[in-house]
Amino acid sequence: MKFVSDIRLLLIGLWLGAAVFFIAVAQSAFSVLPQRELAGAVVNRTLAVLNYSGLAIGVLLILTSWIVRKEVSRFWIWIERFLLLVLVAACAVGQFVIGLWLAMIKAQIGKPIDEAAADDPLRIQFDNLHEWSVWILFAGMIAALLAFFIVTNRKFDKAKPASPLGDFDFQKEFKI
């Protein structure tokens, strides 16, 4: 059972690491590539990989959450499942809703985004959707991080920890 939990932690950690790395890739692409349009293409492709992997890992983790011991608190299992569902929803919304809207707006503009006027309604809508995309990814990352801590703090050992005082019971010894 601990082995399954370790694999689950590895998967959550891999996705979280990829999400943090994506932030660095996005910033680097826009600072290094000569055209912002090229940087946007790199970021869009990398974000798609991140979102699809988040969907796959999230669904797999939700399915494996049903393999639990009876000693594990049902409350924390359901909190973990909810957080993983938030991760899956964030990746799905980011990829299939916001990503498609951004692509449609970009196609309607018909030229690189930076060439559109700042007060162009399509440019404003693009910028707003981009902001939503950032917040959705951030929500997925926070949910994954919280799920990581829940799985990490799960107890697998039924053995009672040894007390430095042995079996001394203060309640029985000092009746007030």
Textual characterization of the structure:
This protein has 176 residues and is mainly α. It has one domain (2-153). The chain is built from five helices and no strands. The two termini are 44 Å apart. The mean pLDDT is 88.
Q: What are the main properties of this structure?
A:
5 helices; 176 residues
Coarse shape: elongated
**Structural class, from helix and strand content?**
mainly alpha
Q: How many H/I helices?
A: 5
Order of helices and strands: HHHHH
Strand content: under 5%
End-to-end separation = 44 Å
The total strand number stands at 0
Radius of gyration: 23 Å
Low-confidence blocks of residues? none
Task: Tell me, rounded to a whole number, the average pLDDT.
Answer: 88
Q: Mind describing the biggest β-sheet? A: none
Could you give a short description of this structure?
The protein is an all-alpha fold and 176 residues long.
Describe the secondary-structure layout.
Blueprint: H1 2-32, H2 36-64, H3 74-109, H4 121-152, H5 170-173
Helix pairs in contact: 1-2, 1-4, 2-3, 3-4
